[in-house]
Amino acid sequence: MKIGIPKGMYIYEKPILFEKFFENLGCEVVYSSDTDKKLLEDGIEYSIDEACLASKIYMGHVKDLVDRKENEKIDYIFIPRVCSFENKKSICVKFFAMYDICKNVFDAKFISINIDYKEGNNEFKAFVELGKKLGFRYTNIIFAYLKARNMQKMYDLKKVRVQYDKLANLSNKQNILVVAHPYIAYDKYIGNEIVKYSQKLGANVIYACVNKSKYSSESKSYLKISKSIYWKPSINLINGIEEYKNYIDGIIYLTVFPCGPDSLVNELLIRKIKNIPSINLILDEQEIGAGVYTRLESFYDILAQKEKKVSGE
Amino acid sequence: MKKKKYIVSFPRLGNYVYPIYNMLDRLVDHSMVDIMFPKSMSKNTIELGSNVSPDFVCLPFKYNMGNFIEVLENGANFLIQAGGGCRYGYYAEVQEQILRDLGYDFTYVSLLEPEGINVKKLYEKVRLLNLNLSFAKFAKEVILAIKAIELLDKVETYIRDNYMYEIKKGEFDKIHKDFIKNVSNISFIQDLIKLKKNVYKRLKLVKLLDKQSSKHIIKVGIIGELYTSMEPFSTFYLEKELASLGVKVKRYTTVTYLLFKKGKSIKKHIKYANKYIDYALGADGTESIAHTLELIEKGYDGIIHIKPFGCTPEINAIPILQKIAQENEIPIMYLTFDSQTSQTGIKTRLEAFYDMLVMKKNMKMETKCIEIGSKENRLNYDKQKYGFQN
User: Fold this and answer.
1) Which pairs with CB-CB distance under 8 Å and at least 24 residues apart come from B251-254?
2) Which residue of B has its CA nearest to A255?
3) Where are the domains of chain A?
4) What does the pLDDT look like over A223-247, one tens digit per residue?
C-alpha cells in the first residue's frame, strides 16, 4: 500500500510519527514536493481568497499528490484531522476541517486520523482506528504506533540537543529566536527563506517550537505570559520563548496572513515581552522579496548598534 | 474614605442588550454599583475599535473594543465580556492588555470559561458586584434573563418568518417595538408569562397573506458566523435591507440556539450532512453546511452566507458550500464584513442578487406558463404581478 503525505500544517508538528507509523505497518510513504512558486499558485487556485497562507500552501501540496497519484500508484492521501488535546487544549479550527475540505475539493481517495480528546478519541485510539481502516491487525497497529512514537520522541530530543549545542557555541553571532509555527518556520518557500537570509546576515537562528518543555512533562511556564490561552501549538511557542529568553538578542515573530491564533497571541506577546527587541513579519502570497529583506536588514542593524552601545564602543 | 463606585458596562449584541441590562440591573447592589447602557453602534465605534486592534483579528474583536473604549471614555470602570469558543475565548486577555496599555483603569471580568459555562465560577464573578447576593436570587435572575432571551428569540423569529406576508405593513414593527420596551423591565417570571401571552395574542391577530397569493415572494436563508448574524449594525442591517426589497428572510443563529441547542445538535448536523462532511468544522461551520441543506430541502430560492473577515470556521465551510451549490443548483452569495466594507457596495450586491433570484424564479415559472399564452402576455402578467420594469 502506498500513502501520500502532503507536507504542510500538522505533519510538521510530528514529522516522524506519521511516516514511521505507516512504514512500520509495511506501507510505503511518499511526500509531496517542496513548496515552490508553482505549488503555491496551485494552492491559491484551489482555496478561498481569504484562507490563510499556510492552508493555501497545504492545498498546493495536496494538489501535487493528486496529480501524481495515477503515475505513482498512490492509494491514499493522508490528511490528519486534529481537534482537541489533553487538558482541554485545542488548536486552530483550520485543522478541524482540512480533511473535509480536501474531500470536497479534490477527486481522490483520502484517509484521515481523528485526534479529538474531547470526544474521547485520544492519540492512541485514533491511531488504532486509522490502522483498522487500512485493514491491519490490532497487535501490529499497537506495535507500529508505539515504535513510531518512540522514534518521534528521540527525534525531538535530538533536535533540542542540537539547538542547545548551537547556543553553547559561543561566537560573536546574534542569537535570534524565530517564533513561528513549524509549518511556517520550516517551509522551504516562506520560513526557510527568512531563516537563510538571517543566517546570511550573521545571525544564529534558533526555533521557539523546538524546546525542552514539549516533551519533559507538561510545562506550565507559559502561564507567566498568558493565563487563558488554549491553543496547544501557541502554548508550545510561548514555552519556547520562556525557555530561551535569557540567551537571545532578538525575536522574529513570523506569521502568515491572516492566521487566527497568531493575530491575538502575537499581539499579546509583543505587548508583554518588552525587554527583547522584536520584529513582526506577516507573510502573504506575494513573493518574499525586497520588502521583507529590507525590514530584516534594518532589524539586524538596530541589534548591532544596540550591542555596540552596550559594549561601550 | 468612601469606596469608589463601580460603573459596569458590556459590549453590545443586537437586541440582547435589553434583557442583559435588565438582569444586571436586578443583580447588583446599587449602593456600590451603577450600570451603564452601552452606546449604540456607530461608525465611530468601529473606527475606535479598529485603530487599537491587531490588523487581521476578526471583526467582533474590533466592535467589542470600540464598545469598550466608548464606555470607558464615559466613565465606566468595570467591563464584562462573555467569552466562548474559537477565538472568542481568547479575546478577553488580549483586550484587557490593550486597554491597559492605553492607560485605562478598570476591572475586567470574562463570564464564561473557554470550555463552557461554569455556574459556580459565574456566581463568584457576579458576587463581585453584590456582596450580599444569595445563590437563590442569582439563579432566579439568571433563569429569568434566559427565559426573556428565549422569548425575544421566539418573537423575533416569528416576525422574521412572517414579516413579508403581513397585509397591513408596519404592524409587526409596532409590536416588536412595544415588546422590546416591555422586555427590559421584567421583574418576575409572572411578568414574563403575561408579556408572552400578550405578545403572542397580538402577533396572532396580524393578518397574513394566504399561501396562494404569497407564492411569488422570494425566500432567502441567512447562514454563517454568529456575531454578524446577530448584530445588525455589523452587516449594515442586512435583514432590513432584504425586507425592503421584498424578500422573506430566515435565520437560524440566535442566542437561544447557541446556548442550549448547539451542543446537542452538532452530531445530528454532521449525520444530516454526511454526504459532504465527516467531522465538525469548528464554531458555526458545521451548522452552515447542515442549514444550507435544510434550506434547499425547504425550497428556498437563495442563500446568503455572512462572516466577518478572516473567520476561519466559515472559511472552512465555503469550499463545501460551493460544492453543495453546484450540485443542487442553488445560488449562494458570500458576504464578508470588515471595518472597511461599504454600505453601498453591500446594497448593490444585494439588489443584483435579488434580481437574479427573481429571474431564476421566473424562468422556472415560465416553463410552467408556456401553455398559458404568448410571450407578450406573459411579460405583462409578470409586470402586473411582480412589479417588473423592463
Assistant:
1) B251/B157, B251/B160, B251/B221, B251/B222, B251/B223, B252/B223, B252/B287, B252/B291, B253/B223, B253/B224, B253/B226, B253/B229, B253/B284, B253/B287, B254/B153, B254/B156, B254/B157, B254/B230
2) B56
3) 2-149, 170-311
4) 888 888 889 899 999 999 998 988 8
